Structure formats: structure tokens, C-alpha cells
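Fill in residues.
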């Protein structure tokens, strides 16, 4: 499991991104680079890291499901993900 501080930091970035999204879009439309530089650094959408919703793991993230590869396999084997099952032939 990822450190709690990393998960909290990423959640803070997500909230800041939502707060300044409209303002950022307006400034980009008007080509206001000075105004963009005055916005908080963590409000940029490129600073948000995709993390697993259960463990907070950032590597091996599966965008379609919101899980890391390890959590995805565990949940799929338990049958908790609809339409997904372990293949056998």
C-alpha cells in the first residue's frame, strides 16, 4: 500500500484542479500566460497521478477499472468485477 501522505497529496491536487478548472480554461482561451503562472502549481491537471482506489498504488494502473493490476486480479478472481473472469481453455 502506498504511503498515506502520497494519497492525500494526490487528493489535494484533484480538488485544486476541480477548483481552478474553469479559470484555467478561460485564461488559456485568452492566451493569458502571466495569469496562468499565478495559479497554484498543483492545480495543473498534469500533476495528478492515476492511483488505485483501494491501495493507492500508482504503477500498473488500469484506467478502465481504476485499479492496479494486482488489485484487479484479486477482485476478478473473487468475481467482484462484472463481466470479468479468469480465462481457461
Amino acid at each position: 500500500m502506498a504511503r498515506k501522505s502520497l494519497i492525500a497529496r494526490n487528493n489535494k491536487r484533484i480538488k485544486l484542479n476541480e477548483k481552478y478548472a474553469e479559470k484555467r480554461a478561460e485564461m488559456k482561451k485568452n492566451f493569458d500566460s502571466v495569469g496562468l503562472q499565478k495559479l497554484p502549481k498543483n492545480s495543473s491537471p498534469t500533476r495528478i497521478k492515476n492511483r488505485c482506489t483501494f491501495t493507492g498504488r500508482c504503477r500498473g494502473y488500469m484506467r478502465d477499472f481504476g485499479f492496479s493490476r494486482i488489485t484487479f486480479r484479486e477482485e476478478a478472481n473473487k468475481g467482484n468485477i462484472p463481466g470479468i473472469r479468469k480465462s481457461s481453455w
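The chain has three helices and two strands.
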